[in-house]
Amino acid sequence: MTELLRIEDLHVSFKTDDGMVRAVDGVSLTLNAGETVAIVGESGSGKTVTSLSVMGLHKKGQAEISGSISLSDHGTFKDVVHLSDDEIRDIRGRAVAMIFQDPMSSLHPYYKIGSQLAEGYLVHNRGKKKEAMARALEMLDLVGIPEPAKRAQEFPHQFSGGMRQRVMIAMALMNSPQILIADEPTTALDVTVQAQILALLSKLKKEFNMGILLITHDLGVVAQVADRVNVMYAGRIVEEGPVDDIFYSPLAPYTLGLLKSVPRVSKNNERLKAIPGQPPSLINLPVGCPFAPRCEYKQHSSEAGCNTTRPALLGTSSTHRSRCHVPEKLRHELFAKELKEVQG
Amino acid sequence: MSEAILKIENLVKHFPTGKGKRGEKEVVKAVDGISFELKAGETIGLVGESGCGKTTAGRTILKLVEPTSGKIIFEDKDITDYSSSKMRAIRAQMQIIFQDPYSALNPRQTIGKIISAPFEIQGITPQEGTKGAVQNLMARVGLNPEHYNRYPHEFSGGQRQRIGIARAIALKPRFIVADEPVSALDVSIQAQVINLLEDLQEEEKISMVFIAHDLSVVQHISDRVAVMYLGKMMEIAATADLYAKPRHPYTTALLSAVPLPDPRSERTREHIILTGDLPSPINPPAGCVFNTRCWKAQDKCRTDVPQLVQLGASQVACHFPEN
């Protein structure tokens, strides 16, 4: 497997009037060619901030960033955290590209689709206007937009939501990046259109051997397209592993809580098992495990470290790791029983 | 279940859009002739993609927008032509919960003021005093009554939705339209709010039209489900029947498109991927409105409008129903 991205011990914090917001607090993850890695979490868990860091999109002076983001620029690795603005601009679009949640606000309403696509190509290939337009038509065709030559002459408002998201994907592909970051790519879309876009992303992954970093809060989407999953809570990864391990033998109480709170087909009439309470403020994180105030399992922790120390990311295997003070063997037993109840 | 609390007959809402390309008048056919009944204590889920008219349907039923034609019969009274002053007396019985808990609350009013608004408008002084009643309501929906004097920005999304719910149940309504009440919330918070709605509904015997695009949430909360597409009703059936045996091809496609939180079944399950986009509600297709995206469409579908008819336990509007 070819590694495309390696994030190590990434910290991102923002200074606000109320204090330091620790949005990302020691995140490490990897992405290989030909796989989809999901980052799952609720609002404020730090998933989007992580992905923006990979694109080098935090403004200098506003965010404090430490750690390393080693990214493959078609074979040569570069550390995004320590690159200059010019160097980042050089790899952005060419080595890594991003699609956003809301395709309407990511497209310029006054410019024709074709020229917006060509613009990204021209940044990296100066003066090659004809080539850029040809490439734009090719990409529109690839993402399934009928009559690309005609549609390229139209404006964003003439496209539907799903078609706009296809345009965004075409735009991301203009410079053949190896890494695609998709931040909630289908959240603004209807289910039938979401199914189209997810199928398109899977096709791209296979055809071009791309690595896709998928940011989402939707566990159904994760189950459908992800190969590996990182679950984030309060700025940290609380569990990482292959998609089956995460869904069928979760080891972090938060992951289990998420899986239990989703309404399911088979369990129509039962009460939903919600996670009590709310996510903590990122300014005043609890001293111990950030999930402890909402956790049902902390009484099982032998030395009661939940309220005093942060659990480390440890694992049974090299691929499946989680953060929790409760002994792993006990978690296996407890969680398997609970999961059986909801999954039937 | 007793008899119907709400009867909707052939309800139509068209919005004029100014002028079309050649100068003729155009209308957006947001709701184009829907009929259904809601029994006392029942929850009916109204689902469909954006632009299918489900929100307009909810608002028209409450007469927040005037219907173009059709009938709304609430507790045996035909309220279709009621004036706004005549509606006010009935409003205490019918309430709404909005999707976006951020824009549904006035940022310059305290929570106490927001939740007491229904009492004020209806000129009611509750037995325990307005403040007492509001604090009881806050406790009912899981808010701390001591936060009476706080402002909306001091609350999270889930808490704000609880405030909206407290306001909606203040006057003990018989009927609530909940318009995407949980779609702006995170999964773990969403489950809390759904549980709250179910508890309140059980205790107060409230009938509900639950509008949502999330089919698993709808399945969880509804007794029956109504599927809309381009302003028309495609299928109405008991929840278990609809999910196990969808009759309309559109329902089948919708259900198949929902990704399940189960990777193994996702790998083997076949997803029906509909081609194309929702047609414009200004110029809906002739015949069955779904014919442009339907894999079963025949010539008949392009000319004849299918009527919603009883088929087994379900009501379906399709010339070639499934199963």
From TrEMBL, chain A:
It comes from freshwater metagenome. This is Unannotated protein. It is a peripheral membrane protein. GO terms for molecular function: ATP binding; ATP hydrolysis activity. The keyword Mitochondrion does not apply. Pfam families: ABC_tran, oligo_HPY. Keywords: ATP-binding, Cell membrane, Membrane, Nucleotide-binding, Transport. PANTHER family: DIPEPTIDE TRANSPORT ATP-BINDING PROTEIN DPPD, OLIGOPEPTIDE TRANSPORT ATP-BINDING PROTEIN APPD. One of its GO terms (biological process) is peptide transport. Signal peptide: none annotated. GO terms for cellular component: plasma membrane. Residues 5-259 form the ABC transporter domain. It is found in: Cell membrane. InterPro entries: AAA+_ATPase (IPR003593), ABC_Ni/Peptide_Import (IPR050388), ABC_transporter-like_ATP-bd (IPR003439), ABC_transporter-like_CS (IPR017871), Oligopep_ABC_C (IPR013563), P-loop_NTPase (IPR027417).
From TrEMBL, chain B:
Residues 6-255 form the ABC transporter domain. One of its GO terms (molecular function) is ATP binding. InterPro entries: AAA+_ATPase, ABC_transp_ATP-bind, ABC_transporter-like_ATP-bd, ABC_transporter-like_CS, Oligopep_ABC_C, P-loop_NTPase. SUPFAM superfamilies: P-loop containing nucleoside triphosphate hydrolases. Pfam families: ABC_tran (PF00005), oligo_HPY (PF08352). One of its GO terms (biological process) is transmembrane transport. Keywords: ATP-binding, Nucleotide-binding, Transport. CDD domains: ABC_NikE_OppD_transporters (cd03257). NCBIfam families: oligo_HPY, PRK11308.1. Belongs to the ABC transporter superfamily. This is Unannotated protein.
